[in-house]
Amino acid sequence: MKSVAFTSDAKAHDECGVFGIYNSDGLNVVEICHDALYGLQHRGHISAGITVNNAESFYTQKGLGMVSEVFPPKSVEKLPNGMIAVGHVRYTSIQNLDQAANQPLVLRYKEGSIAIAVNGSITNFPQIRKVLERGGAIFQSNSNAELMAYVIATERCSTDNLEDAVINCMDKLKGAYSAVICAPTRLIALRDRHGFRPLCVGKLRNSWVFASESCVFDSIGAEFVRDVEPGEMIVVDREGFHSYKARVDREKTSMCLFEYVYVARPDSVIDGVSVHTARIRMGEMLYSEYPLDADMVCGVPDSGIIAAEGYARASGIPYGMGFMKNKYIGRKVGTGMDKKKRLMQTKLTALKSNVEGKRIIVIDDSIIRGETSKHIVHLLRSAGAKEVHMLISSPPFVSPCYFGIDISDRESLIANKLTTEQIREEIGADTLGYLSVEGLRKTVEGAQFGLCDGCFTNSFSADIPSVFFVDKYANKINKK
């Protein structure tokens, strides 16, 4: 079976992105879904796939790699056009992958077929899987999509329709997820009861579209309508648009705060808040908490740039380009033990003519293990920077994420081992400052739902897995 290896860049990542379209206008859903996946590529580059429902027959093309690798020129033409299409891009921290976990996943069961694409992490995965296996289920992967599909198929045997089966499934599955499901005659979109993972609704002429982020709608010419609410299931069929609600505790909605810091694209609007505006505010809030004196402010490409612009705007210190990023780096750079080091060296270089002899404030979105931050400070000092002050537009990571962001190992988080002063010494900066939790929350004021800051506070509003599951299985289970 084909596998792919990749190099971790010591950054936090989201697990994947999903897209779905119900065709009411004679549109080419394959081309639209293909273009939409490019708009979601930042959410996952390990695999991609599209499933099309053509006259209630399902056709799928998927594989390991980025969208351009899975769908080379003219390959999209091999898929027939149809009434419904769903697409998926994936990120995972597992270093060797087989194709069994690639999505969309098509499942054929007693009542027909469904194709499912999921973003997130089901935290009671092992308990539910054990029950299903005792009932005779045979799993082909450790994918959350496969588990969800099995639960839906099981519930369908005791309910009158697919909608009830999906609602019952939402009541059973704990954790964070958003999903699109292609059924024989309808498209279903759902978001977990806490609303951890984003999902929004758009309109393309008279056709309905769903995506993990609203930026996709701009790229395909669709109009943003609204966000899918926590615990909401939307069904689109020949009769139109239908909304159903699972049981929801409105006080415990928990949209992932880190989506605004790093994961989402700046041109997205999530739960009523512009990501770009939030990141500008993060920079402005950093200045209110760390009013430093310097000659230039710069951001680490790409996620630190907007916050750096906000800091420069608030402080009056000139904003400048401190780094050049090589946009043509693939996932395989270097060989042997120095692969990660060579990747960092090749990916980013300091702009010597802009930083030499200057006091530099450099802003990044986060520090996970500290390796990247140490390299950034080294680059600036080697280029002749007189002082390097590093500011981070999020608080220190003190907890793993159990709900779909790839921060699964508490021991690898440098903020759990060292104080801020010790981290400053470790990375070699003159100053190190993190945005406070309170400050970060202020930057997203106006969000329609509650926010999860558990990775910064170690306090979660949803049930988390047992310590045994987190410690022993977090790196073994494919969280899609």
Can you describe this structure?
A hairpin with a 2-residue loop joins strand 15 (269-270) and strand 16 (273-274). It contains 16 helices and 23 strands. The chain has helices at residues 29-39, 67-70, 125-134, 144-156, 162-172, 215-220, 258-263, 275-289, 305-315, 339-347, 352-355, 371-382, 420-427, 437-443, 454-457, 467-473; strands at residues 16-22, 47-54, 57-64, 84-90, 105-109, 112-122, 175-182, 187-191, 200-204, 207-211, 223-227, 232-237, 240-245, 255-256, 269-270, 273-274, 296-299, 323-325, 348-350, 359-364, 387-392, 431-434, 451-452. The strands form six sheets. It has a seven-stranded antiparallel beta sheet with strand order 3-2-4-1-10-9-11. Strands 5-6-7-8-12-13 form a six-stranded antiparallel beta sheet, covered by helices on one side. The radius of gyration is 22 Å and the shape is globular. It has two domains: 16-254, 4-Layer Sandwich (Glutamine Phosphoribosylpyrophosphate, subunit 1, domain 1), CATH 3.60.20.10; 274-325 and 339-460, Rossmann fold. The chain is 29% helix and 25% strand. It is an alpha+beta fold.
Question: What is the topological layout?
Answer:
Layout: E1 16-22, H1 29-39, E2 47-54, E3 57-64, H2 67-70, E4 84-90, E5 105-109, E6 112-122, H3 125-134, H4 144-156, H5 162-172, E7 175-182, E8 187-191, E9 200-204, E10 207-211, H6 215-220, E11 223-227, E12 232-237, E13 240-245, E14 255-256, H7 258-263, E15 269-270, E16 273-274, H8 275-289, E17 296-299, H9 305-315, E18 323-325, H10 339-347, E19 348-350, H11 352-355, E20 359-364, H12 371-382, E21 387-392, H13 420-427, E22 431-434, H14 437-443, E23 451-452, H15 454-457, H16 467-473
